[in-house]
Specification:
Elements: H1 8-12, E1 15-22, H2 30-44, H3 51-64, E2 72-79, E3 96-103, E4 111-120, H4 135-146, E5 151-156, E6 161-164, E7 168-173, E8 176-180, H5 190-201, E9 206-209, H6 214-217, E10 221-226, E11 230-237, E12 240-241, H7 246-255
Parallel strand pairs: 4-5, 4-11, 8-9
Antiparallel strand pairs: 1-2, 2-3, 5-6, 7-8, 7-10, 10-11, 11-12
Helix pairs in contact: 5-7
Length: 257
C-alpha cells in the first residue's frame, strides 16, 4: 500500500504501531498487541480500527515478505488517515492500516549501554504509547552508537530512568527486581509485563520505581526486554560491567518463545 502525501501519520506522526514476533508460523501474542493498539487509539481519540483487517494484514505479512518459515519482526502501522493542511483531524478520520515483515534473527550477545542526554517527556501521553513520533528514541540511539554502545538508556525530564531506545529497562539489586514505573514516561511493554509476572512466580520481589541512573551503577545485573529480543542482558553501562546473573538467565528461559 502506497502512503499518500496527505497521510497524517507521515506528516504529523498521528498514529500508532506495534512490533510483534513471528516465530516461523505464529504470532504468539497477537491479541495482546492488538489490545494495546486499541487502548492507544482511545488515548489519542482515534476511532477503533478494523480488528479483522489488522489480523489479516499481520498474518499475511511474513508470507508476502518471503519469511513464512523464518523468525521475523512484523510491524503493524496505523495512521489517522488522510487530512487537510494543519493539525485538525477530519471530523470522521478514515484510518489506514499497513503491515510489513523483516527478518529478525535471535540476538545472542549481551548489550552495551550508554546514558543518553535526550530525555523522555513523561508529561506527554505519547511517552506511554507506541506512537509514530519516535524521533527522541532515534536521537537517543544515535547518541549511544556514537559513544560506541549498542543501545541508549533514557531518563525523563526529572532525571529518573525511563527506558532504552527500543526496550524496557530492568535491573537486579539485593535479590529484587527493579524497573522504572510507568509514570516515568514508560511504555507498558508486553514482555515487561510477562517478566514481572515470571519474577513474582519465582518469589522475587518486583519494584516499579522512580530512580536516577546511579541505581544502575549499584546493580548486580541490568537487562532489556521487548517482543523481539525477549530478555537481553547488559554487559556494560558507562563505566560499570556486568557478568551473567542467575535470575536474569532464569527469566530469559521462562519468557523465551
Amino acid at each position: 500500500m502506497m502512503t499518500p502525501p496527505d497521510d497524517r501519520g507521515l506528516l504529523l506522526g498521528d498514529g500508532l504501531f506495534e512490533t510483534m514476533l513471528w516465530t516461523g508460523g505464529d504470532l504468539p501474542h497477537l491479541d495482546d498487541h492488538l489490545a494495546r493498539m486499541a487502548a492507544g487509539c482511545e488515548v489519542l481519540g482515534l476511532p477503533m480500527f478494523d480488528l479483522a483487517e489488522a489480523k489479516t494484514r499481520v498474518l499475511a505479512a511474513p508470507t508476502e515478505a518471503g519469511l513464512a518459515d523464518a523468525r521475523a519482526a512484523v510491524r503493524l502501522t496505523l495512521t489517522a488517515g488522510s487530512g487537510g493542511r494543519g493539525l485538525d483531524r477530519p471530523a470522521a478520520p478514515v484510518l489506514r492500516l499497513m503491515a510489513t515483515a523483516a527478518a529478525a534473527p535471535v540476538v545472542t550477545t549481551p548489550v552495551d549501554l550508554a546514558l543518553a542526554s535526550t530525555r523522555r517527556n513523561e508529561g506527554s501521553p505519547a511517552a506511554r504509547l507506541k506512537t509514530l513520533s519516535y524521533v527522541d528514541n532515534v536521537l537517543a540511539r544515535a547518541e549511544a552508537r556514537a559513544a560506541g554502545a549498542d543501545e541508549a538508556v533514557m531518563r525523563n525530564n526529572h532525571g529518573d530512568l525511563a527506558c532504552a531506545g527500543a526496550a524496557n529497562l530492568f535491573w537486579v539489586a539485593g535479590g529484587s527486581l527493579f524497573t522504572p514505573a510507568l509514570h516515568c514516561g514508560v511504555l507498558g511493554g508486553l514482555t515487561r509485563r510477562r517478566v514481572m509476572a515470571a519474577a513474582r512466580a519465582l518469589d522475587v520481589d518486583v519494584h516499579e520505581v522512580a530512580s536516577g541512573a546511579e541505581a544502575l551503577d549499584a546493580a548486580e545485573a541490568v537487562f532489556l526486554t521487548n517482543s523481539l529480543i525477549g530478555v537481553r542482558p547488559a554487559r556494560r553501562f558507562e563505566g560499570e560491567t556486568f557478568g551473567p546473573h542467575a535470575l536474569v538467565e532464569r527469566l530469559r528461559e521462562t519468557t523465551t518463545l
